[in-house]
């Protein structure tokens, strides 16, 4: 995933043609563009640009030497190619709340991982502007042999927070997670719900510009889900950009203003979230 505009002298399409090249090279670990995207209107520059992205995976059909030998004798394919995303393009502006919708295998989780930087596209570009926090998998970024306290500092560092910033927000993070009694327990003893509470609490107490959420709210109990949704709405009200993946269509239609419907790796609808849900259910 690219986090910076093309370098001087590269071929750029019309979206990036008016970018001027930065005199400083910049660090690849930063999530900020060194020069802003051009403004063609009063609307601020986009936070996320997905430009003709394709992503393909190889699916293996054998898992042992015996299975491989039998498949070869019977002339069966050992693997097949699966195209998760096929020429996907869209922009997400600053402060937008967007739901990525689609049935299983439509490519929505793959798209979220491309935006977060966990995966890179085979072709095309994914560009982001600002600090990203991704709640994509429960327990991701946590070390099982470290305590909850130690993992707060570890996970916060992964999200780009400094030690002093984490220390200043430590009490708030623990209080929101509601696992004070277990904060010095190794997280390998945590339940999935406790993982969720701690991971979500760290992410939302980071100074993020883009928050990515993938089905993670389905893990917690109902009171904590309501608490999380209230916090997400609060972040959105402050102008943060939200990208949400969930099978709870009623929830995302209320939470998000815009819906992007993916089907067979392509964008089939991009518009108001309630209309996107209706198209998906049709």
UniProtKB/TrEMBL annotation:
Transmembrane segments: none
InterPro entries reported in the protein's UniProt record: AAA+_ATPase, ABC_transporter-like_ATP-bd, ABC_transpr_TagH-like, Bact_Polysacc_Export_ATP-bd, P-loop_NTPase
Residue ranges constituting the ABC transporter domain according to the UniProt record: 65-282
Keywords: ATP-binding, Nucleotide-binding, Transport
Domain of life the protein comes from: Bacteria
Recorded family membership: Belongs to the ABC transporter superfamily.
MF-aspect GO terms: ATP binding
Pfam family, one: ABC_tran
Protein name: ABC transporter ATP-binding protein
